[in-house]
Structures are given as structure tokens and as C-alpha cells.
Amino acid sequence: MLNDLSFEEVLCRTCSKVEMQAITEVVCQHPERINEVWALANSSIPNAWRAAWALAHINEKNSQLLIPYLAEIADIVTTTKNLSIKRELLKILILHPLPDEPSGVLLDSCFETVTSNLVPVGLRMYAMSMVAKYCDKYPELIPEFVAVLETILAEPPSVGMKGWASRLVQQLSQNKKLNGNRRKRL
């Protein structure tokens, strides 16, 4: 399927999951080709989000291929106005450990995304997951994030988001108790 077409040609037409899987397979077999997909995700082509979608699929199959791009991905998440690209790149970041010195700008961007009613629910849920990763590393963020989640639970925009926020509140409350018990023992 991809033998006769470039990645750009495939991504610029109506792109199916089958084609996305084909791109993923090609890149996993020929890792040097990830640069092509990365360049398309960073380009101004109208369907750049599809290249970001391809990167998310590649990350699920072989996350090592995206490690060199993680800092740039975090930067793009904080600056892009394209919500589809932001969603797909957050999917990638969630599957990787936070860097030793994670970006406060990324955390702020994710908090803003979580609290914005103008952002699609799916993106807000990925942003919630990213903030939860920060809370694992920095438990002092838990009370503020739980308060945000409880506000969402009071008037959830969807059943899925209500369930996701509820699970995170429960998980974070347990983490807070565990961290509190560790401090008491010390």
C-alpha cells in the first residue's frame, strides 16, 4: 500500500486505521523513516494532525522511537492551537516517564486544558492523565488537582469524563494517604 505513495500522500487523503497501521509497520521496520512522519506532524499541511496520530500509533508499537522527540513534543503541546495535534501528542507523553526536570509550562498548559469548557472532552481527559502523572511525582499538587476534578464532577460535560475524573479522584486520594503515612513514619 505504501510502496507507491509517500507518507504525505497517504496522510493528506482520507486516512483509515488500516493505512495508519501500515505507516506504523513501515516506520517500525525502517526506524529512520520516523523523521518523515515527524516532519509532517510539524508542518503546516492541513492534515498535520494525522501525522501526529501516526506518531501516537508508532509510540504504542515502539515507544523507543519517540524518545529523541519528547522535549519537542512537550513544547508543541504547550504552543499549538491545533487541538487534534495536542491530543495526539499528549497520548505520546502519557506513555513515557516524566523527565527528571519536567516542564512547569506543560503542567500549566494541561491544567488550562482540563479546566476549559471550550476544549473537546477527549483532549481534556488526556490532559487529566498528564496532570495525574505530575501528581505522582509531586504529591503536593494533589489537593489542587482533586479540587479541579471535583468541580468537573459537579457538572460533568460527559459521562465518560465524569467516570474518568471520579477514578482519578479516588486514585489521587489513595496516593495522598500513602504519601501522608510515609511522612508520619519518617
Word description of this protein:
This protein is mostly helical and 186 residues long. The chain has two domains: 1-96; 103-186, no CATH class. The protein contains ten helices and no strands. Helix 2 packs across helix 4, helix 4 packs parallel to helix 6 and helix 7 (104-115) packs across helix 8.
Give a quick summary of the entry.
With about 190 residues, the chain is an all-alpha fold. The protein has ten helices and no strands.
Secondary structure layout:
Layout: H1 7-12, H2 17-29, H3 34-41, H4 48-61, H5 70-79, H6 83-94, H7 104-115, H8 121-137, H9 142-154, H10 159-185
Helix pairs in contact: 2-4, 3-4, 4-6, 5-6, 5-7, 6-8, 7-8, 8-10, 9-10
Order of helices and strands: HHHHHHHHHH
What is the residue-averaged pLDDT?
90
Main beta sheet strand tally, sense and closure: none
First and last CA, distance: 60 Å
Q: Nearest-angstrom radius of gyration? A: 18 Å
Protein name: HEAT repeat protein
